[in-house]
Amino acid sequence: MPKQLTIASQTYNDIELQSLAQEYLNQSNLADHLRHFWQFVSDWLNPNIDYIEQQTSGSTGKPKIIRLPKASMRNSAQRTIDHFKLKEKNTALLCLSPQFVGGKMMIVRSFVAGLNLHIVQPSNRIGEHLETTQSFDFCAMVPTQVYELVNAQKTQHFKSIIIGGAPMNPSFVPKLQECSTAFYATYGMTETSSHIALKKLNGTDQAKHYQVLPNIEVSLDERQCLCINAPDLWSKSIQTNDMVELIGERQFTYLGRYDNVVNSGGIKIHPEKVEAVLAKILPFECFVTGKINEQLGEQLVLLIETQNEEWLSHQKEKLQEAMKDKLGYKAPKQIIFVESFPKTTNGKIDRKALKTIVS
Hints:
Blueprint: E1 5-7, E2 10-12, H1 14-25, H2 32-45, E3 51-55, E4 65-69, H3 70-83, E5 91-94, H4 101-113, E6 116-119, E7 136-141, H5 143-151, E8 158-163, E9 182-188, E10 195-200, E11 210-212, E12 217-220, E13 225-229, E14 238-247, E15 251-257, E16 262-264, E17 267-269, H6 271-278, E18 286-293, E19 297-305, H7 309-327, E20 334-338, H8 351-358
Parallel strand pairs: 1-6, 5-6, 5-7, 7-8, 8-9, 19-20
Antiparallel strand pairs: 1-2, 3-4, 9-10, 10-11, 11-15, 12-13, 13-14, 14-15, 16-17, 18-19
Helix pairs in contact: 1-2, 3-4
């Protein structure tokens, strides 16, 4: 196991890293992201434990603490390294908190590949932390960071960016075509340490479907939900609640969560698919959810996040016409305005709370 790490062009061996970790962790005023960084480095180099404890996001069930084998994390890192052809001394940027698995895996990839890792405080405005001459071969971000980076016209600092944590707004994806940086949507979960599939979002080789990485098998259960078999990442098959359409054995299209499906008059509607259409119509962030209806069983309700309710009220008729034109019978039957959307602790939309709002 590689036991040295390069941080901001300075390479440290395992003894030096453990010493630095102890020194930093003893500082009472150490920034949270650096505390999580040095705690992870210390745990990773600890020869007495062969796992890392991590809280799941709830993709495969209720959030819980699980133990990720270090060997599995190294295997996941190696897949990413191989796919992006990352080499020793290539530059990487850590702009996610190592409190989460996405941040931890950037550190693991740096250990395994010998990357030159640079660390900035996690925030949406990553561009503000970049020096004019800095460039990075690889980085992992969440969608909100990508939005700000593109709008700030700072993408030229990056060669490849993988995006995780939440889906990209479909209406924003066309903007990525203007960038030379290669952007990839990822599919994965805590149990797999990182992504098990990638989808290129821009460029001449832009992909329509997720491509499963090597030595990983996928299948469907009777609900059309994805099942993942990756023995070198997790000891048993992982059954998800993610409904997908398989294209051959190595590709799939994500449809939405099984537990989010709205059954309206016997028709199963995937909120995520409806939201992708609405994102091209509305200039505001929006989500849809189901509401109990005596005739239909459930009816689809549109929630719009805006403080400009008066403007939207005047546009309501036009909006409803546009939704019917684009969505037909899947168009939401009711519109509700909210000042802000409820989010889970890891920043994802809290769909259970949405149902409470409309009930």
